[in-house]
């Protein structure tokens, strides 16, 4: 009974955000799907509860995964060392197109991943978000928590074709990778002050109430670390364009989204777990990734990321991030 009650409050909190979104009086200009793309409608928790073909034991596991996804802070200090939950970036319970829906990983993996140069499983993809976006370390492969999370991802993928890669609304990159020529810290700072600071704070640290995260941090110790996907300026720009300010998705101009992404990613944050002791050298070593970030470059007279601060994390390298090759 207690469990059901908790779930209900989570669901109604999410629903009230959606009500705000549909009441918004600003234009919502989300991108259109391209012809021939697969468009997925991920099932909801209501669908799960109504689906009698799901064994009650499986339903429990999926619900556990949903609960971990929505409130990953329950793993704080063990696997999570910042103020994020999975749903903080994968909005709409990880179901929403243009908001980094997570189900495509369940239908397109195992596959080769450029970021770590080997074939990744769904568990390893999730582990990546733990290591970078959550500034933490993954639950062990095959553990109850991993099983629950993967089950939730796979449930969201229900009825989607396997190994279909032409997926509408996947990821956060529809603005393309080319940073506009007029990019400037000062312009980004102005967009931030006008549209974002009210929730995320002038210092980017977000806001908490009674110890709970209400508005997540964008930089500083509680934020995603220097290895996270969102440190790529293009990824942050598209995320922001389609999802921020909260409840006004699509309301910023493309250029304003780029400017503010540039500004946010010019601020300090916990160290990249791949750090070699020298941010410039680490940038070069992982240049395919870091050519899209400002890490290891000179910003306002300082080399970004040249520090030993791992935020609240008492360690630097997650032991599970080991390269794997098959001869
Ligand atoms: C700080 C933001 C952030 C947080 C928090 C976060 N992620 Fe991610 N996640 C990303 C980004 C960025 C990508 C890459 C999207 C892209 O390819 O453009 C991603 C990708 C993924 C993918 C692959 C999706 C695909 O299309 O293949 C999965 C699965 C995923 N995340 C799961 C999780 C889980 C589970 C958690 C919580 C443990 C989590 N993420 C937390 C930002 C985040
Ligand atoms: C009305 C409050 C509000 C405003 C205004 C707002 N945000 Fe957010 N933002 C949120 C919330 C809440 C989340 C987490 C979403 C969730 O948990 O459902 C979030 C998440 C984010 C994230 C991903 C998570 C993280 O912490 O890194 C980024 C990046 C972000 N916002 C950037 C911005 C930018 C840039 C602006 C201004 C253009 C902005 N936000 C305006 C409330 C707001």
UniProtKB/TrEMBL annotation:
Keyword Metal-binding: yes
Protein name in UniProt: Thiosulfate dehydrogenase
Gene3D superfamilies: Cytochrome c-like domain
Domain of life: Bacteria
Cross-referenced Pfam families: Cytochrome_CBB3 (PF13442), SoxA-TsdA_cyt-c (PF21342)
Record organism: Marinobacterium halophilum
Cross-referenced InterPro entries: Cyt_c-like_dom, Cyt_c-like_dom_sf, Cytochrome_c-type_DH
A GO MF term: heme binding
Annotated signal sequence range: 1-21
Sequence segments annotated as region (Disordered): 298-327
Coiled-coil parts of chain: none
Keywords: Heme, Iron, Metal-binding, Signal
Domain called Cytochrome c: residue spans: 72-157, 183-268
């Amino acid at each position: 009974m207690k469990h059901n009650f908790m779930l209900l409050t989570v669901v109604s909190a999410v629903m009230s955000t959606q009500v705000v979104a549909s009441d918004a009086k600003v234009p919502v200009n989300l991108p259109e799907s391209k012809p021939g793309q697969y468009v997925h409608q991920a099932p909801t928790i209501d669908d799960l509860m109504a689906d009698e073909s799901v064994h009650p034991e499986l339903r429990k596991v999926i619900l556990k995964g949903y609960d971990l996804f929505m409130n990953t802070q329950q793993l704080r200090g063990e696997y999570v060392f910042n103020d994020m939950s999975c749903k903080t970036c994968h909005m709409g319970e990880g179901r929403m197109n243009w908001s980094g829906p997570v189900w495509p990983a369940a239908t397109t993996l195992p596959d080769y991943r450029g970021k770590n140069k080997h074939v990744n499983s769904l568990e390893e993809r999730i582990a990546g978000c733990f290591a970078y976006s959550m500034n933490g370390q993954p639950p062990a492969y095959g553990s109850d928590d991993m099983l629950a999370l993967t089950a939730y991802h796979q449930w969201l993928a229900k009825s989607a074709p396997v190994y279909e890669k032409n997926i509408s609304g996947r990821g956060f990159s529809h603005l393309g990778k080319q940073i506009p020529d007029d990019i400037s810290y000062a312009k980004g700072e102005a967009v931030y002050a006008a549209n974002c600071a009210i929730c995320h704070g002038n210092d980017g640290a977000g806001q908490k109430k009674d110890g709970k995260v209400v508005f997540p941090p964008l930089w500083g110790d509680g934020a995603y670390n220097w290895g996270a996907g969102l440190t790529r300026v293009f990824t942050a720009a598209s995320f922001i364009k389609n999802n921020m300010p909260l409840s006004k998705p699509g309301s910023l101009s493309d250029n304003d989204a780029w400017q503010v992404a540039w500004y946010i990613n010019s601020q300090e944050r916990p160290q990249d777990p791949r750090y070699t002791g020298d941010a410039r050298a680490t940038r070069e070593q992982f240049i395919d990734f870091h050519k899209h970030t400002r890490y290891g470059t000179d910003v306002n007279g300082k080399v970004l990321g040249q520090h030993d601060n791992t935020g609240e994390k008492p360690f630097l390298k997650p032991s599970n991030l080991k390269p794997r090759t098959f001869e």
